[in-house]
């Protein structure tokens, strides 16, 4: 009977492979000689992953989702940043305002025509207005005027005849007053758009043109307007000045200038031109009748005056040649070519050449044979 190890507990037994059993104090058992502990993942030469695979970073499911989200945000930001890059055409002037999600709509700057590409700001609008010469045309030809149909401005004369005007106004926007114009009228009409600009001009220019033309036309009769070209120039100049003054009063400032306006320069009145004046057909027909009658009267006056002059000539001839009416008859016959030649009574018997240049022989003296020279 062998002696028991005093350190072992009553219930402890030895390992079947000859190794020491686990210590009752909790220490790990020693490994048998010549054996190795297999490391997690295996070692090189054992068929498991090598050192490089153990050092490679591993991306978990959460990190991958974050990377995808970042990529999506970057792609979405590209058009957003691109839309913030602005430039102005050569015929447009821009005015920039703040407009971000948390930014107030405040004035930022005015951008002159033909600017290069610049960063205007995220969500910040750039409003564009015309910087070149503009025109407002009223014409009965639908392809010429601002309206798609035949158009004219009608005003009564002093004798209550309706006069129709076809006209044109040439102007430029006063860009020195662009901020006031935009905040007072541009936003109201959305005048930075084509339809909004057209509506603004129709509401401002058209009303003032009609009022100025009606006021000026009532000063004159239809005959004066229809027949006096210099008077039309006077009406044109008066309406141009009145139009500028009334636009200023109605809008609060000189927002529209002459075509020659330059930024920083003087703002003169827009150019107003009367292209054509039309009257009712019945009035035109009456004018033509009167004109035809005037021509007939003038023709008759001329005929009477001509006869009076002829009578004066006859009287002068009769006074010079006596009361013999045959003298005047001979003269008229000669004027009309009815007499080819005639002989002046003379002691020398001179024969006057005929109209065709033939000359007759001198009459023979009594007792002398014809054709004898001596």
**Helix percent band:** 25-40%
Radius of gyration: 57 Å
| Total helical elements | 8
* Envelope shape: rod-shaped
Number of strands: 10
Detailed description of the structure:
Strands 6, 7, 8, 9 and 10 form a five-stranded antiparallel β-sheet that branches. With 374 residues, the chain is an alpha+beta fold. The longest helix has 41 residues, at 281-321. It has helices at 51-55, 61-83, 178-189, 194-217, 222-227, 229-251, 281-321, 326-335, and strands spanning 85-86, 92-97, 107-111, 118-119, 126-130, 134-138, 153-156, 162-173, 256-257, 271-278. The radius of gyration is 57 Å and the shape is rod-shaped. Mean pLDDT is 76; it is low at 1-20, 22-28 and 41-45.
Write a concise keyword list for the protein shown above.
rod-shaped; 8 helices; alpha+beta
Please render the helix and strand layout as text.
Blueprint: H1 51-55, H2 61-83, E1 85-86, E2 92-97, E3 107-111, E4 118-119, E5 126-130, E6 134-138, E7 153-156, E8 162-173, H3 178-189, H4 194-217, H5 222-227, H6 229-251, E9 256-257, E10 271-278, H7 281-321, H8 326-335
Antiparallel strand pairs: 1-4, 2-3, 2-5, 6-8, 7-8, 8-9, 8-10
């Amino acid at each position: 009977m062998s002696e028991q190890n005093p350190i072992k507990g009553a219930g402890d037994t030895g390992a079947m492979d000859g190794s020491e059993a686990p210590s009752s104090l909790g220490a790990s058992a020693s490994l048998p000689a010549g054996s190795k502990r297999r490391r997690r993942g295996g070692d090189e030469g054992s068929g498991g992953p090598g050192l490089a695979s153990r050092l490679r970073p591993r991306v978990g499911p959460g990190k991958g989702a974050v990377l995808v989200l970042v990529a999506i945000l970057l792609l979405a930001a590209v058009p957003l940043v691109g839309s913030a890059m602005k430039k102005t055409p050569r015929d447009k002037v821009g005015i920039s305002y703040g407009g971000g999600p948390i930014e107030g709509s405040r004035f930022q700057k005015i951008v002159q025509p033909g600017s290069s590409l610049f960063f205007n700001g995220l969500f910040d609008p750039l409003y564009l207005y015309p910087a070149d010469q503009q025109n407002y045309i009223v014409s009965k030809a639908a392809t010429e005027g601002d309206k798609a149909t035949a158009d004219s401005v009608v005003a009564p004369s002093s004798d209550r005849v309706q006069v129709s005007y076809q006209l044109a106004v040439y102007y430029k926007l006063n860009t020195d007053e662009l901020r006031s114009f935009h905040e007072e009228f541009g936003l109201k009409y959305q005048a930075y758009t084509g339809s909004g600009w057209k509506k603004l001009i129709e509401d401002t220019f058209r009303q003032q043109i009609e009022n100025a033309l009606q006021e000026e036309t009532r000063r004159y009769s239809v005959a004066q307007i229809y027949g006096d070209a210099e008077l039309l120039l006077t009406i044109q100049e008066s309406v141009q000045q009145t139009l500028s003054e009334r636009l200023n009063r109605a809008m609060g400032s000189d927002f529209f200038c002459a075509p020659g306006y330059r930024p920083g320069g003087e703002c003169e009145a827009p150019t107003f031109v009367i292209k054509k004046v039309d009257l009712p057909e019945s009035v035109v027909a009456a004018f033509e009748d009167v004109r035809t009658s005037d021509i007939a009267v003038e023709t008759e006056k001329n005929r009477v005056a001509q006869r009076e002059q002829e009578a004066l000539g006859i009287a002068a001839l009769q006074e010079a040649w006596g009361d013999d009416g045959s003298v005047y008859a001979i003269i008229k016959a000669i004027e009309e070519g009815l007499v080819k030649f005639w002989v002046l009574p003379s002691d020398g018997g001179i024969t006057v050449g005929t109209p065709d240049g033939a000359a007759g022989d001198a009459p023979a003296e009594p007792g002398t044979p014809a054709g004898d020279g001596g």
